[in-house]
Amino acid sequence: MDRTHGTSTLAVFLSALCILSSGWLSPASAMDFKAVKFTYYLHDSFVPPNVTVVVVAGANATLTGVPTLGDISVFDSILKETASNASAQIGHSSGELVSLSDPAQNFITFVQEITILGYSGTISASARFNFTALSWEVGVSSGTGSFRGAMGYFRVTIVSLDPSFPVIKYEANLILPRH
Length: 179
What we know:
Layout: H1 2-22, E1 33-43, E2 53-57, E3 72-80, E4 89-99, E5 105-116, E6 119-130, E7 135-143, E8 151-160, E9 167-177
Antiparallel strand pairs: 1-3, 1-9, 2-3, 3-4, 4-5, 5-6, 6-7, 7-8, 8-9
Protein name: Dirigent protein
Keywords: Apoplast, Secreted, Signal
Subcellular location: Secreted, Extracellular space, Apoplast
């Protein structure tokens, strides 16, 4: 009886070893990753008829007034190659912005659909940030298409806070699994 138990344990061990060495089930640490960096620009419009940001909730909330806790804006902004409004469109950034108890603090969650040379898909991100800062970071949580399995962050910088047509720079710093 002891011999049978030892033989079956050895058989299970050898089977597991064969499966792991075949690559069918490979450990995550063996996965191959690549660093990807690129820059693009978000263009908003607060002027009809092409408005890209709308306040949907809040007491006396406006896009240009002082925000209060709970003000919620939704957006579907245009992404372009450069800060110039004449540059090529490469996608959209859609999500929501929530004002926090400190009027300068906000919480943002969004999905960006991006098509650039060699890459096409969506990137999901969220962060708590202060609009009075010139720059901040937003954590990337996932992606689809060419960005499937994305990790990393965006460095976000204000280029122009023109009350009608603000422009924001995104520097993507991503780690992507090789597919």
